[in-house]
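testing teh design pipeline on a random one, pls ignore if ur not involved
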């Protein structure tokens, strides 16, 4: 999302509200978006919940077993093989 375009859309009333947890440049320390009442800046922490960490561990174990035992490609590979 272009923060400048989002600002323009919020300021003009083109959209009613927005929330972001990821920015083009991080950390985004200052931006006119932060002055708008209809904008919410939230931390990017969904991956750090107890369930997310447990699920990540299970995915890792399944992928290791898949490669070593079943000779299969792992699931959810981000950077490729």
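output:
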């Amino acid at each position: 999302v272009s923060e400048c375009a989002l600002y323009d859309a919020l300021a003009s009333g083109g959209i009613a509200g927005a929330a972001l947890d990821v920015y083009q440049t991080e950390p985004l320390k200052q931006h006119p978006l932060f002055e708008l009442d209809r904008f919410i800046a939230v931390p990017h922490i969904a991956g750090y919940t107890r369930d997310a960490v447990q699920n990540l561990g299970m995915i890792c174990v399944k992928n290791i077993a898949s490669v070593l035992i079943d000779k299969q490609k792992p699931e959810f590979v981000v950077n490729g093989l």
